[in-house]
């Protein structure tokens, strides 16, 4: 993909641009802001498009329509969410195809995004390449933006955690020049931030389960899962099991200062060979956004909104926050 410093600078710039746009606002619909942020990051890394380009807005609009149709009755009747989703998928796919064609025709202008690498892979057909791009865009923005919403929601309920987070980020900033970009070492030094993110992943369960199929008989404890059977590992059942995570129904980021994050009782990004390839990108995005959020704003969740699982976790009103900018 990109060299890390470029990627990190892109992410941080995208975060500050979003937060600057709140300057004169008293409230924001946070889920929309988070989607804008994670979408702008992923669309830049995958397709090389900047937020200002009209195509970025068009693709985002189509993705939102596509997402709305994901959980609907799959019968094609024009005007239904399903039919609109099918149309949106066709439009996104043709936009991606036209970007691929433009790039081919402009082979002297090199970019450093994911598409550039994909263009020269001979083993994939054109449709497979488009599908690869769509999966990366889709996998890369909705989950991360939901994680951000969860973090912001839990921090609103946990003033001690919000305060400790602010201290951590002020300390990191105090060691840098005013407008110097964050780097990988800064990210690694954000210890409490990592605990907050882990806890939001455990307690918030952005992805609750995955689909698996046994390709041969599998022995699991006293059971045999026959070849061909579908299996649904439910992560949320494990993440909320009080015998594995003490006081499991409480947001407690401090638990991660002692708990092991690499064990089988914590698998927010799946596991094995299909483990999420974007897990570190997602965490960097959240950490960098928080870096600027906690130092520049106070926020409060309005209307006592709570997340619900429907079946994907969501905030039905989009998580409205009242925001107050701190004077620098
Ligand atoms: C909070 C953020 C995220 C969460 C919770 C998450 C979670 C997951 C989970 C649970 C899986 C399935 C793993 C399995 O089947 O074992 C997955 C797969 C995947 N994720 Fe993520 N993900 C996140 C962010 C991202 C990002 C930022 C990207 C893109 C860069 C991404 C791209 C993908 C792709 C392409 C797959 C399919 C991998 C495969 O089937 O081989 N995800 N993710």
UniProtKB/TrEMBL annotation:
TM stretches of this protein: none
One function term, GO molecular function aspect: oxidoreductase activity, acting on paired donors, with incorporation or reduction of molecular oxygen
Protein name: Cytochrome
Subcellular location(s) per record: Membrane
Family designation: Belongs to the cytochrome P450 family.
Residues that coordinate or bind heme: 276
Membrane topology designation: Single-pass membrane protein
Major location (coarse): membrane
GO aspect biological process, one term: brassinosteroid homeostasis
Domain of life: Eukaryota
InterPro entries (UniProt xref): Cyt_P450 (IPR001128), Cyt_P450_CS (IPR017972), Cyt_P450_E_grp-I (IPR002401), Cyt_P450_sf (IPR036396)
UniProt entry keywords in alphabetical sequence: Heme, Iron, Membrane, Metal-binding, Monooxygenase, Oxidoreductase, Transmembrane, Transmembrane helix
UniProt key word DNA-binding: no
Source species: Sesamum alatum
One cellular component term from this protein's GO annotations in UniProt: membrane
Cofactors required: heme
């Amino acid at each position: 993909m990109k060299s890390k410093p470029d990627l990190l600078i892109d992410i941080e710039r995208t975060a500050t641009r979003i937060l600057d746009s709140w300057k004169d606002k008293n409230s924001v619909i946070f889920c929309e802001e988070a989607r804008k942020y994670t979408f702008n990051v992923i669309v830049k890394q995958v397709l090389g498009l900047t937020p200002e380009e009209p195509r970025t807005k068009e693709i985002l609009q189509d993705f939102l329509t596509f997402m709305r149709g994901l959980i609907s009755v799959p019968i094609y009747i024009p005007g239904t969410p399903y039919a609109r989703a099918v149309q949106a998928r066709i439009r996104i796919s043709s936009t991606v195809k036209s970007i691929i064609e433009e790039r081919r025709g402009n082979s002297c202008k090199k970019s450093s995004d994911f598409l550039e690498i994909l263009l020269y892979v001979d083993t994939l057909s054109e449709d497979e390449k488009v599908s690869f791009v769509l999966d990366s865009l889709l996998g890369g923005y909705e989950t991360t933006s939901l994680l951000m919403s969860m973090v912001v929601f839990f921090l609103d309920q946990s003033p001690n955690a919000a305060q400790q987070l602010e201290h951590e980020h002020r300390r990191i900033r105090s060691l840098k020049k005013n407008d110097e970009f964050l780097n990988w070492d800064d990210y690694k030094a954000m210890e409490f931030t990592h605990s907050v993110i882990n806890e939001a992943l455990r307690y918030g369960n952005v992805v609750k389960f995955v689909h698996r199929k046994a390709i041969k008989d599998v022995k699991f404890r006293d059971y045999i899962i026959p070849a061909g059977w579908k299996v649904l590992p439910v992560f949320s059942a494990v993440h909320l099991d009080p015998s594995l995570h003490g006081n499991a129904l409480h947001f407690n980021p401090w638990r991660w200062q002692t708990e092991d994050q690499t064990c089988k009782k914590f698998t927010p990004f799946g596991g094995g060979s299909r483990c999420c390839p974007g897990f570190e990108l997602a965490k960097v995005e959240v950490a960098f956004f928080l870096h600027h959020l906690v130092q520049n704003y106070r926020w409060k969740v309005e209307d006592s909104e709570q997340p619900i699982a429907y079946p994907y976790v969501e905030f039905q009103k989009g998580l409205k926050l009242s925001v107050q900018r701190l004077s620098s």
